[in-house]
Design brief:
This protein is of the alpha/beta class. The chain folds into two domains: 2-237, Rossmann fold (3-Layer(aba) Sandwich), CATH 3.40.50; 241-296, no CATH class. Helix content is 46%, strand content 13%. The chain is built from eleven helices and seven strands. The chain has helices at 2-10, 15-26, 43-56, 79-82, 111-119, 157-161, 181-196, 219-234, 238-266, 268-271, 279-296; strands at 31-36, 61-67, 93-99, 124-128, 145-150, 171-174, 207-210. The protein has a seven-stranded parallel beta sheet with strand order 3-2-4-1-5-6-7, with helices on both faces. Strand 5, helix 6 and strand 6 (171-174) form a beta-alpha-beta unit. Helix 2 (15-26) packs across helix 5, helix 2 (15-26) packs across helix 11 (279-296) and helix 9 (238-266) packs parallel to helix 11. The protein is globular and about 60 Å long. The N and C termini lie far apart (41 Å).
Length: 297
């Protein structure tokens, strides 16, 4: 797996890379959970608990942790990875840290291809975004279920409402719920903010769960919330539709990154295709044609 991800980073559009990623896209085995929230909200602690539980249940787990980049080297500092307690000999666990490298949105450029590849191999895939503020919402472009972590004392409901990030979670977790009244206030504020956030029709009503790693409380409720959202997605083809939207978003972002809005206008019709079966092959074809047509102009 490490070699495959490195292959993509070295040559994203090589024949073998494209074939591997499109095969993985066509055969998703696992489920992707995106975990986001501000720095210090307890995301890594929560991931440790999930990893331990799922491995104990015999499920394979992969974690893709997006770390802030070093300004000197451009690499990740690996802070999230070193906090995860895993057995190096356990081949049922895969942990990879990647650098955001200045990319906005809380993710790294490799996040979507990596999620596609990981979900073809592992039962559970966790994508942890870099610590985010009010507008980094790209986590929903790679995840089946989005979890927003908030710690007590992090702001009232008005502060939450300024954040576009409250519009995307399927599950909201108040961590460090053992802190008493301040944790109860945070939960109430978060519930109020989520209730007022704009959402499209036919969406999952987000669930709020208080969790305490110190006391070990709230974890079974969180697992039940995961299952409730998974069951909702399984109905009426919602999961497949969501993954099609993610593929289309990735295609659009590749065109925008390489050719800007002029490129988007040139291939707009192809970016709204009903079904995308080979997004990585399609991306190579689109980018190749744009290099030719826009260079002529």
């Amino acid at each position: 797996m490490a070699a495959a991800l490195s292959l993509f980073e070295q040559n994203a559009f090589a024949d073998e890379t494209i074939a591997l990623l499109d095969a993985a896209f066509a055969d998703p085995n696992g489920y992707v959970i995106g975990i986001t929230g501000p720095p210090g909200a307890g995301k890594s602690t929560l991931i440790n608990s999930l990893l331990t539980h799922w491995r104990g249940a015999g499920l394979t787990v992969a974690v893709l942790a997006v770390d802030p980049s070093s300004k000197a080297t451009g690499g990740a500092l690996l802070g999230d990875r070193v906090r995860m307690r895993t057995d190096p000999a356990d081949r049922g666990v895969f942990v990879r840290s990647v650098a955001a490298r200045g990319r906005l949105g809380g993710l790294a450029d490799i996040a979507y291809p990596a999620a596609v590849l990981l979900r073809a191999v592992y039962d559970k895939v966790i994508v942890e975004s870099v610590g985010v503020g009010q507008s980094e919402t790209d986590i929903d472009t790679v995840s089946d279920t989005v979890v927003l972590c908030i710690q007590p004392g992090s702001g009232d409901s008005l502060q939450f409402m300024k954040a576009g990030i409250v519009e995307i979670p399927d599950i909201a977790v108040v961590t460090k719920a053992d802190m008493g009244p301040v944790a109860s206030r945070a939960l109430a504020d978060l519930q109020g903010a989520l209730g007022l956030a704009h959402r499209e029709s036919d969406v999952f009503e987000p669930l709020c769960v208080p969790v305490s790693a110190l006391r070990g409380s709230g974890f079974s409720e969180l697992l039940s919330a995961f299952e409730a959202h998974r069951v909702w997605l399984a109905n009426e083809g919602r999961l497949a539709h969501s993954r099609q939207i993610q593929a289309r978003h990735w295609l659009r972002s590749e065109v925008l990154t390489n050719f800007g809005r002029q490129g988007i206008e040139a291939v707009r019709g192809e970016l709204i295709a009903d079904v995308i079966s080979k997004p990585f092959h399609d991306a190579r074809q689109l980018l190749g044609r744009l290099r030719v047509s826009l260079s002529v102009l």
